[in-house]
Amino acid sequence: MGHLHFPDGFLPLWLWLGCTIAVVMINAVILARLSTTQANKRIPLAGVMGALMIVGMSLEIVPLAYHLNLAVPVGILLGPVLAFLSVLSTNIFLALLGHGGITTIGLNTLILGGEALLGWTLFHLLFKNLSLHFRAFTASFVALTITHVILISALTFLAPQLMHHDETESELIRFELIAEQDAHEEAEETEPGNTGLARFAMIMFSLSTIGALLESTLSAYLIAYIGRLKPDLLSRKV
Amino acid sequence: MTIDALDHLAYRSTGLFHQSRPVTKLLLVGAVIALILTTTQITPLILTLLLLIGLIISAGVPLIPLLLFATYPLVFVLVFGLSLAWTPTTLLIGGLKVFTASTSLLLLATSTPYPQIFSTISPVISRPFASLLLLTYRSLFILNTVFSETLAIMHLRGAFSWQHPSRTLHAIANTAGITLFKSIELSEKMYETMRLRGFRNMMYYTPRAGTLCSNDIIITLATIVIISMIFLF
Questions:
Q1: Considering the entire predicted model, what is its pTM?
Q2: Of A61, A67, A128, B117, which has the highest C-beta tally within 10 A?
Q3: Which of B120, B131, B147 is nearest to B2 (CA)?
Q4: How many angstroms separate the CA atoms of A180 and A161, rounded?
Q5: Residue B53: Cβ within 10 Å count
Q6: Cα-flanking dihedrals φ and ψ of residue B21, to 5°?
C-alpha cells in the first residue's frame, strides 16, 4: 500500500499542491543532470520497469485491499534517480486509468520514490553482507514497513482534514466527519472520533503488513533469480 | 477491461469523442477534476456523471464495461470510509467523487491514444521524460505479450500447484524474471530501431487542419457546463 488510492478531492490543497511542486522540482533537477548518453542507455530499462510496476499495481489482492508496488526491486535495479523517473511515469499512467487521482500523482511519486530509495540503500549499503535472497527480502520488507508506518501515521493525523466540508446553510445536504464530534443526531449513534482513527490505523497497518510480507517474498525470489542469471543488473548504480 | 482493450478502443472506435482534438478532451477532464476538488454537494457530481455517461454513449465506447472498470477505486474509499465510520452521506459523496473522476479519465483513455495525450503535453515536459513515457507505454504491451507466452509455457510444465507453495513461489518469480529479461531485450531492440529511424525523444502529433469541428464545440460546451456548476453550487 505504498501507493495511495486516494482519488481527487480528498486531500487538502496544501498537501497535494506541495507534493506536486516538490516532484516537479526533483524531476527538473534529475533531468538537468541526466546526460544524453545515460538517458539513451537506460531509458528502455526504465520503461520496462515502469510497465512492470503498472502491471503489479493492477493486480489487486482483493481480501487485503493491497496490490504489489514493486518499487523496491525497481529501485534496486535502476538506482534511486532513474527509479524516481520511472515511478513518476507509472503514476501518470495509473492516474490516466483512474487508479488514483491526477492531484495525487505528486504525493504517490514521493512515497514510491522514497520506497525505491530506501530499498536501494538497504540492499546495496546496509545489508550487503547478507545472502542475496535474504538481503532482498529484508530490504524490501523493511522499506515497505517504514513507508507504511509513515503513510498510515500521516493519514491518521490528516483524517479530520480529508474531504473538506462546507457548513453554509445553502447546502442541500450536509456531511460531516464523525471524527469532528459534531452535534448532528447521527453522531449519537457512532463512536467518538479517536476510536475511529485508531481502528482505521489498526486495520490499515494489519492489511499492509500482510501485503508487505507477500511482496517482499516475491521481490526476494525475483532479485535472486536476476542475480543468478544477470548479476550485472544488480550492480550498484545511483 | 484490460489495457489492451482500452488501447484498442482508443485507436479503432469512431465517435464524437474520437474525432475531437486531444486538447479539448484534456480540458474537459481538467474541468471535471476542478469540480471534484471544489464541490461538497451531491447534485453537481450526479449531473456531471450523467453528462459523462451521455458522452460515453455518443463516443461509441461500451458503457457497462467502462463503468465497471471505473468502480475499482471505490474499494479503497469503502475501506477507508467504513473504518473511519463516515456517515452514509459522506460515503456517498466520496464514492461519487471517485467514480466521476475515474469515469472521466477512462473516457479520455478510451477515446484518445496515449501518444496523442503525451504529444499534447510534451511542450511542458522534457524530451527524455517524453521518451520514457512512450517507452513505458510500449513496454506494457511487450510485457503483456511476453508474460502471456511465458505463463502458458509454465502452465504446460505444471509449474503452479498450490499444494507445493514454495515451488509455486519459485515458479512465479521465475516467470516474472523470464518475462522481465525478454521484455528488457525487446524494449532495447525497439528503442534502437526507433533511434535508427530518426526518433529523438520527441513525440509529434499533427492535429486535424482547419477550424474546430462540431465535435470539439460539443465537448467545449460540456466543459463550460461543468465549470459553471463549480460556481453555481
A1: 0.81
A2: B117
A3: B147
A4: 10
A5: 15
A6: -75, 145
B201/B23 Cα distance (integer angstroms): 21
Record the cell numbers describing residue B47, joined without a space: 449531473
A144 vs B47: CA distance, rounded Å? 40
Q: How many residues does chain B have?
A: 233
Mutation to test the B interface, candidates A3, A11, A97, most B Cβ within 10 Å: A97
**Cα distance between residue A219 and residue A73, in whole Å:** 6
- Count CA within 13 A, CB hemisphere, residue B105: 27
Q: What is the pLDDT along chain B (233 residues), one digit of tens a residue?
A: 667 777 777 777 666 677 788 888 899 999 998 998 888 888 999 999 999 999 888 888 888 888 888 887 787 777 777 776 778 888 888 888 888 988 998 888 888 888 788 778 777 777 778 888 888 888 888 888 888 888 888 888 887 777 888 888 778 878 888 888 888 888 888 888 888 887 776 666 555 555 567 778 888 989 999 999 988 87
In DSSP terms, which residues pair with A66 in a beta bridge? Answer: A61
- Among A26, A145, A152, A32, residue whose Cα is nearest residue A88: A26
**Cell digits for B96?**
461519487
Residue A31 in contact with residue A79, Cβ under 8 Å?
Answer: no
DSSP string, A49-108: HHHHHHHHHH-EEGGGTEE---HHHHHHHH-HHHHHHHHHHHHHHHHHTTSS-STTHHHH
B window 170-209, beta carbon within 8 A of A: 170, 172-174, 176-177, 180-181, 183-184, 187-188, 190-191, 195, 201
What is the model's pLDDT at position A236? 65
- CB of B1 within 8 Å of a chain A CB? The answer is no
- A67 DSSP β-pair partners: A60
What angle, 0 to 180 degrees and rounded to 10, lies between the N-to-C axes of helices A132-158 and A105-121?
Answer: 150
Query: Could you tell me which residues are beta bridge partners of residue A61?
Result: A66
* Distance between CA atoms of residues A144 and A213, nearest Å: 9
